[in-house]
């Protein structure tokens, strides 16, 4: 199988969020048939549509042989392993892994929508994504989220 380029957003705002995000980057590199091509800096951002402490965020580029659904299953396994609970929508979290893009795949199923439907609304996704893959983000998209607080660490 040929590898596809995928982008995954990483976020955490409970516990040692910096360490959790760094560990998630390493865990993603250890997935079967997968390697990390690029890692963004870490960023601090205010929660969007949520309560709780600031988030630590990053985006990684993967080269993966996993298809989108198999990759999603692995991301959810890593979230569970980090103690992720889902008591309510947008609850604070120990680890959040969002599949943003998987090659040129466009899909909308009950379990996965690609590209990620809300990535263009979130500075905590667009700013780190633009750092490692500027061709994936337009100036207009960045302008739309310019009012959202985000700080490179």
Total count of domains: 1
What's the mean pLDDT score? 92
Low-confidence stretches are none
Count of DSSP helices?
4
Oligomeric state of this protein: single chain
> Which architecture name does CATH use?
2-Layer Sandwich
- What shape does the CA trace take? globular
Biggest sheet features: 6 strands, antiparallel
Tell me the name of the CATH homologous superfamily.
7,8-Dihydro-6-hydroxymethylpterin-pyrophosphokinase HPPK
What does this structure look like?
The protein contains four helices and eight strands; from the N terminus they run βαβββαβββααβ. By secondary structure, it is α+β, with helices and mostly antiparallel strands. The chain is 28% helix and 27% strand. The chain has a single domain (4-148), classed as Alpha-Beta Plaits, CATH 3.30.70. The strands form two sheets. Strands 1, 2, 3, 4, 5 and 8 form a six-stranded antiparallel β-sheet that branches. The protein has helices spanning 17-29, 68-81, 123-132, 139-144; strands spanning 4-12, 34-39, 43-45, 55-64, 96-102, 107-108, 113-114, 150-152. The protein is globular and about 40 Å long. Strand 6 (107-108) and strand 7 (113-114) form a beta hairpin.
Topology diagram in text:
Blueprint: E1 4-12, H1 17-29, E2 34-39, E3 43-45, E4 55-64, H2 68-81, E5 96-102, E6 107-108, E7 113-114, H3 123-132, H4 139-144, E8 150-152
Antiparallel strand pairs: 1-4, 1-5, 2-4, 3-4, 3-8, 6-7
Concise account of the structure shown:
The protein is α+β, with helices and mostly antiparallel strands and 153 residues long.
